[in-house]
């Protein structure tokens, strides 16, 4: 049976009234859950496993898969409107989505997110059905050495995410890695960076850091501005012009492909894919210097990539039985509970499930688009909420999300602490994106580095002798070169006196001198950045 016949067979399964209903339930639940920090797809799938236990295995996995990519799809809404990422995979979306909302373009930002999510999901489904078996065999070739190199490549994204100051970007990344190392070492059982606090033995939850550094810090910025600037009213239409569609199409297509291949690699997932795609687009775009100020490409790239990666993560899950993320690990458990053993034999032993799930993903992407586009004007009305109501609403949003994780008052204290850290980072022009990326990749880097060194008996040369690892590390080094060249140019260029015309009107050199000023108070130019009425620059994540 050819691939087209198999796909038609899968659509025959997915288009039954019962499975269509489960697709709709899954994506609707996922969309709602993705908007709410604290729940996330992992918790939702875990809670729905008992419901799925009595169902037909194919229908159950179709519904649970819908929850997964629906949550990734829905997480962009809170990232764009409130700068409060509901899902880790949508953190990069907030870098330009929230500044667009501040400029009254929330409708367009949400429309771009919805359309690019659909594009990413669709391209990834095509890739899943076309090259799943061969990609699965390639993914097996990735061991600890290659994964460490991949994480290093991901971490070098701090150069492009760090804005105009390389040092501040690297400092933020190192702090993020340090936060990732807090807790009991899983291999040596040594307690690290806990300050003898038992509450830190299990580490710091990603959600606490993300909500503190982004959402709570935004609340503090609003209060500090005392009514000036802030959220814009008069939300524009969600209709995109031909020029805007032409502008976001190449990033969406490129990021969809990158996201799919990243999702195929076990351990990478939607979060890494979104950061990599954002970094790639910022490097290659002609207007890359406007990323972080409300550039539509900065919304299109991570949204296409995270949805493509969510679908791509089903390749190792279904064909190898290897979960590519925490969420697909829960799905693997669900498959086991339902009596299905994923692996190389799944395509021959359970073709109805494999092709039914593949077809349901495409149907689910269409349902998500139809479901979300009409609701965008309703979502965008959040921005018309008066500041006196919006600030406490965001605070409650954060507190409920964090307290729901572990019902710990200590976690609320951590939330407040990271909110203060995020506020100070913005005041001193330290980017938050590298901190979040370091937090995400830090633990993965340490684990794979240790495994690689154990396999090689402590020989560090193993990272350079393996071809894939050497290639990834070479790309990581090359990605650092442009930033290093800029630093060297700044040092060779004489610093103009403060207030001179050269300082006010020139490009890279004065930006460097502003970032390196003694009080650190000077920031980027205000024009075109959607700044508040008091001249403050919005968060440049």
UniProtKB/TrEMBL annotation:
InterPro entries reported in the protein's UniProt record: DUF112_TM
Disordered: annotated segments: 495-541
Entry's transmembrane regions: 20-39, 51-74, 110-132, 138-159, 166-184, 204-223, 257-278, 320-341, 353-373, 393-418, 430-448, 468-488
DUF112 domain: residues covered: 20-437
Origin: domain of life: Bacteria
Pfam families: TctA
Keyword Transmembrane: yes
Alphabetical keyword list: Membrane, Transmembrane, Transmembrane helix
Coiled coil (UniProt feature): none
Name this protein carries in UniProt: Putative tricarboxylic transport membrane protein
Organism of this sequence: Nocardiopsis aegyptia
Organism lineage string: Bacteria, Bacillati, Actinomycetota, Actinomycetes, Streptosporangiales
């Amino acid at each position: 049976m050819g691939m087209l016949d198999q796909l038609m067979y899968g659509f025959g399964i997915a288009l039954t009234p019962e499975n269509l209903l489960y697709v709709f339930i899954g994506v609707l639940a996922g969309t709602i859950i993705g908007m709410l920090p604290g729940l996330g797809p992992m918790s939702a799938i875990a809670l729905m496993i008992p419901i799925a236990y009595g169902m037909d295995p194919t229908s159950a996995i179709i519904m649970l898969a819908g929850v997964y990519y629906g949550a990734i799809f829905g997480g962009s809404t809170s990232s764009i409107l409130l700068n409060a990422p509901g899902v880790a995979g949508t953190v990069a979306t907030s870098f330009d989505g929230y500044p667009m909302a501040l400029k009254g373009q929330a409708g367009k930002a949400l429309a771009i997110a919805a359309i690019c999510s659909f594009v990413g999901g669709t391209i990834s489904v095509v890739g899943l059905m076309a090259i799943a078996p061969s990609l699965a065999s390639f993914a097996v070739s990735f061991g600890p050495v290659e994964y460490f190199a991949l994480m290093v490549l991901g971490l070098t994204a701090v150069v492009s995410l760090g804005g105009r100051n390389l040092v501040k970007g690297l400092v933020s990344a190192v702090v993020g890695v340090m936060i990732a190392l807090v807790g009991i070492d899983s291999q040596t059982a040594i307690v690290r960076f806990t300050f003898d606090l038992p509450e830190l033995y299990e580490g710091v939850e990603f959600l606490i850091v993300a909500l503190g550094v982004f959402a709570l810090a935004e609340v503090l910025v609003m209060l500090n501005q005392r009514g000036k600037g802030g959220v814009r009213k008069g939300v524009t239409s969600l209709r995109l012009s031909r020029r805007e569609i032409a502008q976001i199409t190449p990033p969406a297509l490129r990021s969809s492909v990158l996201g799919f291949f990243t999702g195929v690699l076990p351990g990478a997932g939607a979060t890494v894919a979104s950061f990599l795609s954002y970094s790639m687009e910022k490097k290659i775009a002609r207007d890359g210097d406007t990323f972080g100020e409300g550039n539509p490409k900065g919304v299109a790239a991570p949204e296409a990539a995270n949805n493509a990666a969510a679908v791509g993560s089903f390749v190792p899950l279904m064909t190898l039985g290897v979960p590519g993320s925490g969420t697909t690990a829960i799905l693997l458990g669900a498959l086991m509970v339902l009596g299905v053993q994923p692996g190389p034999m799944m395509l021959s032993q359970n073709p109805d499930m494999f092709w039914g799930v593949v077809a349901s993903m495409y149907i689910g992407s269409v349902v998500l688009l139809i479901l979300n586009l009409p609701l965008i004007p309703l979502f965008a009305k959040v921005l018309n909420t008066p500041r006196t109501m919006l600030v406490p609403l965001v605070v409650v949003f954060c507190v409920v999300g964090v307290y729901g994780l572990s019902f710990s008052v200590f976690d609320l204290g951590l939330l407040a602490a990271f909110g203060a850290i995020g506020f100070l980072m913005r005041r001193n022009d330290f980017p938050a994106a590298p901190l979040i990326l370091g937090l995400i990749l830090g633990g993965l880097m340490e684990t794979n580095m240790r495994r690689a060194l154990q396999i090689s008996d402590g020989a560090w040369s193993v990272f350079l002798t393996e071809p894939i690892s050497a290639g990834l590390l070479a790309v990581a080094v090359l990605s650092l070169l442009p930033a290093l060249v800029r630093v060297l140019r700044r040092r060779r260029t004489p610093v103009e006196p403060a207030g001179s015309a050269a300082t006010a009107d020139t490009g890279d050199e004065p930006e460097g001198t502003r970032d390196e000023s003694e009080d650190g108070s000077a920031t980027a130019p205000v024009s075109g950045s959607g700044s508040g009425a008091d001249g403050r620059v919005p968060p440049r994540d």
